[in-house]
Amino acid sequence: MILYRVLRRTMRVYFRARLRIRREGEENIPDRGPFFVVLSHQSDLDSLLLHTFCPRLLFTLAKSSVFRTRFMAWLAPRVGALPTRRFQIDPQAVRVALRLVERGEGVGVFPEGERSWDGSLQPLRIGSIRLLLKAGVPVIPCGLIGTYGVLPRWGHMNWLKVGVRREPVIIRYGKPIQFGRHDDRARRERARPEATVRIRHALQAVMAQ
Amino acid sequence: MPIHDMLYRCPRCGHDALDGHKGRVHCSSCGTRFEQGRGGAIIVRPPGGPPAESTASDLIARVEALGGPGVGAELGEKGLFREARITFGRAEGQDVIRWRGEVLGFAERISWKGRGSIRLEGEALTFKPDQARVPDEGSDQGFSCLLGDIRGVQISSKALQVTLDGARLYQFEFMDDSPKRWEDLLCLALTRLYSRDGLRIVEFKPRIVTEPEVRTTDGIR
Q: Does the beta carbon of B108 lie under 8 angstroms from any beta carbon of chain A?
């Protein structure tokens, strides 16, 4: 993860010059041990900011099309991106995420599965909730407030505008949610509706201005 | 993705298809301009009037109210109709993504084939390449399928991905239309189709998931 650490430092310098970053609730990220970070997907900046500023190194599930070029297929895994096929159920992505949390790593998940068009929280994907229930490790909600305003899905951003009139972005972590481990499929399905509501509420809370 | 992919219909007058690029669009019918403002706002500049600030959610709701993805009169009982020019590709195999000797996952390999057209008509979706190859070459022959054969619909970057039975993935980039409109259009057509069988679609991606519709006294839930 040397490249990840080097890029993290570089990106911190850049993002501090480009955005007015405020970080809250970092004490909720455990110093050691496995965890999931769940966050609402508002902008292309989300995963960059999460990987750059999260107190722990993270692996994040990313759409497989990110890995399509040779360069990205080489780079993305070295900065913690895990490929997920979005046009079919992807058991390999689930296996790898579970293997990583078993090793005590942190994994980032965008439970909506895609960026929002209007900045609102979209329905949470069934597969994401199943993954969180199966792992049974702490789930930390994270809100990235302001990224939609800087780079919405339908818009563009001036990457070179640094220093003046920096837009504020808050990276806020909420209290960990404990679901317990749901190995049994039937138990997981019974717990899913309530878990969906809890995660949704937690995301709304951390995203509140 | 440019703003006119989201605002594929003028939110002010309902005129279909706006001109523009990147952060700006213009309606050739009523003359209103829409452009990206600060903080995710959209500035609406009506001709001769003062500019006003709006949000994407308000404007998307207006687009829906003025006809959404369908085409006015053709949005009738016979079903939806639309046709568009596209460049198309198909997933042909997958690349294995490894790190430190471990298989992390797979990335679909999309091979770009060429140009063609796609048409939604009632309950049929037809894709036709401009130059169909001989039958035994298979993959870029196009297809005609019923909506019920579609297993998933989603946007990936600027393209629309449609998964058919047998995990066949087609990717379409629109030459003069919005991928979001086509996603909305197919989702609307699929919602109508499944609703007829008393089913509600819970997810469109990565695959269509349905549950029985609950009919209440004040409507369907």
A: yes
Which position has the token pair 């900065």? A79
For residue A129 the two structure tokens come to 């909730």
Asked if residues B30 and B13 have their Cβ atoms less than 8 Å apart, the reply is: yes
- Digitized pLDDT (tens) for each residue of chain B, 221 residues in all: 789 889 999 999 988 877 887 778 999 999 999 999 988 999 999 998 899 999 999 999 999 998 888 764 455 555 678 899 999 988 888 899 999 889 999 998 888 778 999 999 888 899 888 876 544 445 556 788 888 999 989 888 788 999 888 778 889 999 988 999 999 999 989 998 999 999 999 998 888 999 998 766 565 55
Q: B97 CB near a chain A CB, below 8 Å?
A: yes
Write the ipTM. Answer: 0.87
From residue A205, alpha-carbon distances to A25, A174, A200, B122 in Å are: 13, 8, 9, 43
User: Which tokens hold the place of B154?
Assistant: 């989603």
Output the CA torsion sign for A118, A120, A126, A131: positive
Q: How far is CA A149 from the centre of its chain?
A: 18
- pTM, two decimals, is 0.90
Cis peptide before A141 (omega within 30 of 0): no
Q: Which residues contact B161 (CB under 8 A, 6 or more apart)?
A: A86, A87, B152, B153, B154, B155, B169, B170, B171, B172
- List A residues 77-106 in contact with B (Cβ-Cβ < 8 A): 77-78, 82-90, 92-93, 96
